[in-house]
Amino acid sequence: MQPLTLKIDSVQLAFDERKILQDVYLECKQGEVIGLLGRNGSGKSSLLKIVFGTLTPFYKHVNINGTVIQYGYLNNRIAYLPQQNYLPGGIRINRLASMLIDGQYWQQFSNLRIYQDHQHKYAEQLSGGELRQLEMLMILFSKADFILLDEPFTHITPVQADYFKSIIQTIAKTKGIIITDHQYYDVLDISDRIILLTNGCTKHLKNVDDLVTYNYLSGIK
After folding, report:
1. Which one, out of 26, 81, 108, 147, has a CA that is 20 to 30 A from the CA of 100?
2. Beta bridge partners of 81
């Protein structure tokens, strides 16, 4: 079976007449990780929310293999890890997991230590770090064809970041992943391609040095 391709084109978004996104094009195939970089306020989170379907722009064209997608969250097409916590309270973790996790990954997910330790708890009983880890794992092992990760490495340790990078690379063998994070070196470490969002436009970078060319970095160490 040919891998699915998610395409995002012609996104236009403005707040109070200030253009945030105006010339956006990117695509992501199942089997690859796309790194999305940009300075604070460049519109990275807004773009992911538009693709997911929770933010309505002036215009967008999103499709998967030619089928137009208005709301990515429908029918398990696209899953989104927001910067804020998303798991609801009042429902045990194991119940939430049974609804969210892709059956082909259930054994792998259910054997994870953090799930074993907290599966009978509620989200409000977990620490911020524990909750962030479980939320990220549930998104990665979800039923979605494409995964959007917004600041996944924030509030976790470097050791945990390395652990999650290995999981992201494993999941990317069957899913398409778009990831953005201020920890740009973590994004560079796992991405097959890098796209820079600057002045409302997407720049498809040929190499890391282009981050200096477009003034995202002052120099490469």
Report:
1. 26
2. 149
